[in-house]
Specification:
With 355 residues, this protein is α+β, with helices and mostly antiparallel strands. Helix content is 37%, strand content 12%. The chain folds into two domains: 3-120, Phosphorylase Kinase, domain 1 (2-Layer Sandwich), CATH 3.30.200; 133-349, Aminoglycoside phosphotransferase (APH), C-terminal lobe (Aminoglycoside 3'-phosphotransferase, Chain: A, domain 2, Alpha-Beta Complex), CATH 3.90.1200. The protein has eleven helices and eleven strands. The strands form four sheets. It has a five-stranded antiparallel sheet with strand order 2-3-4-6-5, covered by helices on one side. A two-stranded antiparallel ribbon has the order 1-7. The protein has a two-stranded antiparallel ribbon with strand order 8-11. A hairpin with a 6-residue loop joins β9 (221-223) and β10 (230-233). The protein starts with a strand and ends in a 6-residue tail after the last helix.
Length: 355
């Protein structure tokens, strides 16, 4: 599949007005000249994003959703996205160049920022059916290298020393997503209740602090049009200072999803497809980051299923409120129960018992 992907999400409601954008950016963005065109980009579940044409160039405009008063606490923090993208411009982590952040909601009715539109390929199915075996292996290798580069950055030198609170990351994240889940709860999910009780009792020793993406997965990446190489990492809404192993294990949850369920890889013939096994992938990450290995792997996977369940439940709630960006938000949001059950199953491997 070949497509131009700068950012991924289309949004509900009316498009921002092109003439308003033309007036606002005149004098602020060199070369941002009329006529200005704008269209929604499809896909995603969070912040609406639009393809903007001006002065012979293409940009991506990322905004908060409409109906801001209905947003869940701490959701849709595009100001943080802009800040981290701006900081990463000076690093070897590939990101779109950002141009301008506007927090004045009077301009188009919501906060927004403008960045370059990055052309390339977007893949959804992690089996990468359109690539050759060697290309699949190369792309998985580059994905893990890019994430390792991110985790090795000196975030203080980038001016991001206050981008999050160092230490006790898992404690704070479990508390945060438990609160978010309760705020968006639409039905009782026993497995989620069990995880909320159990996860704080089994937290591993602190594994360090780094800049984490928070949602690093294949469909948040732009791949070069010709080579199996990552040219842009998108959707930094959940970025913060946190646990490198929590971030990496989230990326590896794809190995635990059955094929056809949340775009999984469980049970495939890795050798035939040229895709590394989970253990090989973990080994590659450890080599790139200088780790001897990863203890408590099952805990990190259980934690991430819990976290994903809370996120998906939030999408379901936003669908009910009419603020979800994705057209399939209602259907997608029903997956919270399955995710929680996968997490609780993993927890029980570590000796967790029903409370």
């Amino acid at each position: 599949m070949t497509t131009d992907v700068g950012t991924k999400t289309g949004g509900p409601g009316a498009l921002p007005d092109a003439e308003t954008l033309a007036r606002y950016f005149a004098g602020r963005i060199p070369g941002f000249d009329a006529p200005v065109t704008i269209e929604a980009l499809a896909g995603g579940q969070s912040n609406p994003t639009y393809l903007v044409g001006a002065g012979g160039r293409r940009y991506a405009l990322r905004t908060k959703p409409g109906k801001v008063a209905d947003l869940l606490p701490s959701a849709h923090q595009i100001e943080r996205e802009y800040r981290v993208l701006d900081a990463l411009a000076a690093t070897d982590v590939p990101v779109p160049k950002v141009h301008h952040l506007c927090t004045d909601e009077a301009v188009i009715g919501r906060a927004f920022y403008l960045m370059d539109f990055v052309g390339g390929r977007g893949f959804i199915d992690p089996r990468l059916p359109s690539l050759s075996s060697s290309e699949r292996g190369a792309l998985f290798g580059d994905m893990v290298r890019v994430l390792a580069r991110l985790h090795k950055l000196d975030y203080t030198a980038l001016g991001l020393g206050d981008f999050g609170r160092p230490g006790e990351y898992l404690q704070r994240q479990i508390a945060r997503w438990s609160k978010q889940y309760r705020a968006s709860e639409t039905e009782r999910i026993d497995a989620m209740d069990q995880l909320i009780e159990w996860l704080p009792t089994r937290i591993p020793a602190d594994d360090g602090v780094c800049l984490v993406h928070g949602d690093y997965r294949l469909d948040n990446l732009v791949i070069d049009a010709l080579e199996p190489r990552v040219v842009a990492v998108l959707d930094w809404e959940l970025a913060t200072l946190g646990s490198p192993l929590a971030d990496f294990s989230y990326h590896c949850c794809v190995f635990h999803f059955p094929v056809g369920v949340y775009r999984g890889l469980a049970g495939i013939d890795y050798v035939a497809l040229g895709i590394p096994s989970e253990q090989s992938y973990v080994d590659a990450y450890c080599h790139a980051t200088g780790r001897a290995g990863i203890a408590d792997w099952d805990y990190y996977i259980a934690y991430n299923f819990f976290r994903m369940a809370a996120i998906v439940q939030g999408i379901r709630k936003r669908a009910e409120l009419g603020t979800a960006a994705g057209a399939n938000a209602v259907e997608f949001g029903r997956g919270a129960r399955q995710l929680a059950e996968l997490g609780w199953e993993r927890a029980m491997r570590l000796g967790a018992r029903t409370i």
